[in-house]
Amino acid sequence: MKKNILVIPGDGIGQEVTKWGKAALEKIAELYSHQFSFDEAIMGHVAIEATGDPLPDETLNKAKNSDAILFGAIGHAKYDNDPSAKVRPEQGLLKIRKELGLYANIRPILLFDELLEASSLKPAILKGTDILFFRELTGDVYFGEKTKADDGSYASDLMNYHRYEVERIAVKAFEAARMRSKRLCSVDKANVLETSRLWRDVVQEVSKRYPDVETEHMFIDNAAMQLVKNPRKFDVVLTANLFGDILTDEASQIAGSMGMLASASIGDGTGFFEPIHGSAHDIAGKNIANPLASILSAALMLEISFGLKEEAKVITNAVADTLKTGYRTTDITNTSTAQDYILGTADMGAKVLEAIEAQK
Ligand code: IPM
Ligand code: MN
């Protein structure tokens, strides 16, 4: 198979971890005789520094002309405490999502048994959890009109949804539910928000086309609680942009660490694959970030964009094998982790490559 892959490492630890997602793709290409060619582009703080624009046209053009994109992370601490900054790294990510029509963000909460003890939650509560989030990604309060009074006394962000925006992601989530345990939970705040009532109405309508899927509706506040009380209760979770952003960070603790979760953003064109974690400037450049989320994002790319299920499985199995051997990055250690098995980013990445190779 011949594919053009664009790599956008982005900011902070994105630079370090994306190397390993790319290396996993290269290793698969070598072992399975695929021809993957790679190009690289800038986005976020690094792009602002170089061009003044968080998403330069050159990056967007390359993105539109690629078969899939592997992205790292975005953001820089310097903007977090400067609310007045007009040009911000995150604008690059939001713009590329919109421009590529990436309306469905798929976030699997993949729990490796070896990491049951790495979570802050009790292993007995976690064991057997397997959740697939469908987060709407190009609408909601993220993209509604923003206003701010000149004197700074007032600001607003418009939360809005069109029926078609809810319908297209609902269809994707129901299709996935049908292939899994046939349970879908739609999360909203329909007791308060008009957009959520529209959301619920559309989801109810779509659910009629999937009579084999058991559909449940839950309020976001309750869902946030249930997720840590009894995560096994959930299978496919369908939710809006902001709720999905928050719930998936919460759910990452089920998997042991933000450093473990990969995501796929898809729509009508090029797919975009990235860890759910941020740029983590506090640990950037120290060779301690966990590269597994980037490596697992590469696996999602193979499966979802290229239909290479076997190759994707090889990567996921390699991650499982590496964890089984006992190797850990610092974010997924606990008190019983042997010191010799605590690895930096590069050593962890290299161990996974060996484990990929060992399966062939
Ligand atoms: C994510 C991130 C982004 C979001 C930020 C960086 C804009 O938190 O991908 O979850 O809020 O969508
Ligand atoms: Mn987020």
TrEMBL record:
Domain called Isopropylmalate dehydrogenase-like: residue spans: 4-352
Keyword annotations of the record: Amino-acid biosynthesis, Branched-chain amino acid biosynthesis, Cytoplasm, Leucine biosynthesis, Magnesium, Manganese, Metal-binding, NAD, Oxidoreductase
Range of residues in the leader sequence: none
EC number(s) given by UniProt: 1.1.1.85
Binding site for Mg(2+): 221, 245, 249
Cofactor remark from the record: Binds 1 Mg(2+) or Mn(2+) ion per subunit.
SMART domains: Iso_dh
Binding partners and assembly: Homodimer.
Name listed for the protein in its UniProt record: 3-isopropylmalate dehydrogenase
Gene behind the chain: leuB
